[in-house]
Amino acid sequence: MWGTSQRAAFQRSKDLLSSTALLVHYDSALPLVIAADASPYGLGAVLSHRMPDNTDRPVCFASRSLAPAERELKNIQPTASARLQRWALLLMHYQYSLVYKPGPTIAHADGLSRLPLPQAVTSPSIPPELISLLQELETAPITSQLMLWTRRDPLLSRVCRFVGEGWPVTCPSEDLLPFFKKRDEQRVESGVLLWGMRVVVPPHGRETLLEELHDTHPGITRMKATARAYIWWPGLDTALEDRVKSCLTCQQLRNAPPAAPICPWEWPGKPWTLIHIDYAGPFQGGMLLAMDSHSKWLEVFPVKAATSTATIEHLRSAFSIHSLPHSVVSNNATVFTISEFTAFLERNGVRHITSAPYKPSTNGLVERAVQTLKQALRKTTGGFLKTRLARFLATYRFTPHTTTGVSPAEMMFGRRVRTRWDLLRPDVHAKVLHKQEKMLEGSNSSRSLRDLPSNAAVWVKDFSGKAKWLPGQVLAKTGPMSYQVEVDGKLWRRHVDHLLARQVSPPGEGIDQRQPSQTPDNYSAGLSLDWDFPKDSPRNSSPEGEPPTKRVSPAPPGDVPAGASPMLSERQTEAGPRHSTRPHKAPVCLDL
């Protein structure tokens, strides 16, 4: 039962909580502990000092009831607040550590949250001057200077007035916008404007502080880290960056920038179009390397000295074998930039591309080849240099390249080259090709391929057994050695060996029957022969060397039409028209 004695005991407990027997004064030398808790209807907090005996003595208490809107939030949200990001930004100015403790272990904060005041009471706040660490700097000369500069500066004096009297709802002017955005975090102490724990420096003192920050040339990052702990003004980061960028000492001794992204050369579409050249030396006297960008084919020329004359001679030899390239890439060595070398490339229509100075990776294809060549020659011992170099080039050219997956020789020549490894397995195809090559070499030594144009007049071999050669006309070429010809209105297909060129008299000129006609066998125009072989045929002469036995006398001139072949006329007279002996069968139509 709640009576007078209970009320007196409760009041005595409240007085005791706020008495010196329990509370202690704030001491900047002692660590602070804040215990906070929340209930569904109230908030409670206790600010305490951690004493030397490891006990907590309260400095002050706080408690209030939740608003109706706040009561709708979950319990975790009133404890940490839904505006976690905003609170995190505010707490960044302080050094603290979070420790979780169950509610029963912080009964003082838990009790204040469960027995809050019925309404929020505005208690007089402690003047910040009493707890601010900057209070100790009141007597420092820099503080008086900042106070004087702040009071005389038109912009900062307005900001100080707004901080003391309250900011308007909207920003009054554009120059006040940086301060307006931070209006909830600003205060004025001893006439000095502060943003959190950072001093807002007036324009008169900014140059001096920039010089102090840049005294030992620490760099942009370290200067920003130091400045963000003590000072601030609008555009501070930009001012620090400009100071470092304008410092001649800092720029001359700065580190190299990040490496640029890799930009490979455009891959040519055919071999020996883009060539990379470089010298490997002094190594084994010196060597000139030329590598094809398409096939990765490598040429190596040993030289006694890296001179423009030697370079031109070796490149001329390579160009005579592989043709002239479109472009040649080299570094900026004197041997490649001398006028004699550039004139040689210009005369041959070759574009000369030089890499950036002191950047070997621009010509990285041949630079890598130089490294590979040196390693290979160091690993091989014994024998002459030319022998070891030839073995290295054979291995390099016949081995599939890591970039293309095909050997440089196959990419260069468009075929698979033969190596000693091919001897391990039988190659029937190679044997057949070898036999064919031997056969063609013997048979084609005295032969030449004849090409007959369209509409050409020819003598056509007749295999019907009546006449040996018939006049015809070439219509089209149906293969490398076959033609389609028209003979007496019929279309025949004949090999070039079965065709002979035929001379036709010009229009309007008659044929002198008394003159020999030009036939394949060179017989007289008026003769009709039973054996009509060319002179080179074995059948043209008998084994005993006697001429053919069957001959006929020349035909009368009137029997040969003008412009017609005398031989054809004789044949038509003797044999008559030729007809096919194939039996014909009428087609069966509508046989349903």
Automatic annotation (TrEMBL):
Residues 501-592 are annotated as: Disordered. GO terms for biological process: DNA integration. GO terms for molecular function: nucleic acid binding. Residues 267-416 form the Integrase catalytic domain. Transmembrane segments: none annotated. Gene3D superfamilies: 1.10.340.70, Ribonuclease H-like superfamily/Ribonuclease H. This is Gypsy retrotransposon integrase-like protein 1. It comes from Synaphobranchus kaupii.
